[in-house]
Amino acid sequence: SVFTLCVLLSDPSDFDGGELMTWHAGEAQKHAMGRGDALFFHSEKVHNVATVTRGVRHSLVVELWQGASNRKDRYS
């Protein structure tokens, strides 16, 4: 994908941990997010989510692609 959009669907008080992090020059940058907040970035940027240590974290992730549509089911 070219771009990634991550949206936090859970209230941050419903879980511990689970911070969305991007990396720059080997350093983690934690992104404090509230319910409904989104982060939009180039998909090649190294990113991850810290371990959730309590509760459940729900998010929506959208990957945006460039180029021709994929009309073939890769599983058939």
What is the mean pLDDT?
Answer: 93
- Distance N to C terminus: 22 Å
Compressed to H and E, one letter per element, the order equals EEEEEEEE
The structure class reads: mainly beta
Radius of gyration from the alpha-carbon trace, in angstroms: 15 Å
Main sheet strand line-up: 5-1-8
Helix content range of the residues, please? under 10%
Low-confidence stretches: none
Shape: globular
Number of helices: 0
- In percent, how much strand structure appears in the residues? over 45%
Largest sheet: 3 strands, antiparallel
Beta-strand segment tally: 8
List the SSEs and their pairings.
Blueprint: E1 3-8, E2 15-17, E3 20-24, E4 27-31, E5 38-42, E6 47-49, E7 52-55, E8 59-64
Antiparallel strand pairs: 1-5, 1-8, 2-7, 3-4, 3-6
Could you explain how this protein is built, in words?
The protein is built from no helices and eight strands. It is mainly β and 76 residues long. The radius of gyration is 15 Å and the shape is globular. The model has no long low-confidence stretch (mean pLDDT 93).
Tag the structure with descriptive keywords:
76 residues; mainly beta; three-stranded antiparallel β-sheet; globular
Can I get a quick summary?
The protein is mainly β and 76 residues long.
